[in-house]
Amino acid sequence: MSTPDALVIEADDLLRVYNAGGLQVQALQGLDLRVRRGEIVALVGPSGAGKSTLMSALGGLDRPSAGRLVVDGRDLQKLSPMQLTSYRREQVGFVWQQTSRNLLPYLSGRDNIELLLSLSGTAPADQAAWVDELLDAVAMREHAGRTLGELSGGQQQRIAIACALANRPVLLLGDEPTGEVDWQTAAAILRLFDEVRRRYGTTIVMVTHDPRVAAAADRVIDIRDGRSSSELRNRAAADEPRETWIVDASGRIQLPIEFRQALGIGRRAVLTRVDDMIRITPVPGDDHTTIRRTGMDDPVLIADHLYDDRSAQRERWRWLRGMFRWRRR
Ligand code: ADP
Predict the structure, then answer these.
(1) Is residue 212 part of a domain?
(2) Ligand 1, atom nearest to 45 Cα
(3) Which atom of ligand 1 is the closest one to the Cα of 53?
(4) Is residue 251 a part of any domain in this protein?
(5) Which residue's CA is the nearest one to ligand 1's atom 7?
(6) pLDDT per residue over 35-81, tens digit each?
(7) I need a labelling partner for 201 at 20 to 30 A (CA). Which of 217, 219, 223, 320 fits?
(8) CATH number of the domain enclosing 52
């Protein structure tokens, strides 16, 4: 068990390369991340930036191709497949956007939680008090006997959170956990997350596209092109900067594509030290139209002289065919 303020997540230089139909996709490209015990962190960023890939790695559902990933002192890259399975069952809780993915619909809320506890080998005698406590924590004790069809979306998500907490995980992962409920319900779920981290010291990492949800986190990390690019502290002290750019373990910093385009910074830049500042300026004549985002849904700027339109189109078709084959497997 970690002590307060201890690092629960330490990710260094994470790399994840997918092979899709003979084409390599670099979903994580040297990602660094540090999260403390009891922190609530929101991951934001454009579609295709690598957020889900990172969540799968954190949840032990997938293994990065390279890099170091330590969660609560366990080096996930070194765990055997069996150890990774028990990590996934015992150390992590998942709350997905679709409640159907979190829960068994024909069971009551209480039965859902009890089933999970039985599967993890908790003796029935030890279960009752803990199930009651969990139901109280998510304010669902009085509705616990209802099947999920009799509950609203928000109530189902509360039961899902209780289920995710059943095995006392050190880390709770939420993939758009408020994506399918109205804002009032979302706000209640966010208050619940805050309560959970206070009560149990659980570290919470969630992916969101909703700025209001991100605003409820302690830190918002912007993932760009498979790396942590910048972070925003919602509760920064007066003498702390609110928004910072992440410098990775090798000293790399990701210049935002908007700045690069505006200043015409291509593949090289000139760094000049000016007193206590570093000035970054473009190299005259550099071609900045080669700037490229990896996210498939983002504008991909590819210089005409590097890839003509037809070969880029062929490349995209091969990629899509690969994805289709992969999804059917
Ligand atoms: P996000 O969650 O930020 O939308 P993802 O982690 O889902 O991003 O994806 C990052 C990149 O990796 C994207 O280009 C995506 O198409 C690709 N990708 C994700 N999963 C797979 C997979 N299983 N096989 C091939 N490519 C994948």
Answers:
(1) yes
(2) 3
(3) 6
(4) no
(5) 52
(6) 999 999 999 999 999 999 999 999 999 999 999 999 999 999 999 99
(7) 223
(8) 3.40.50.300
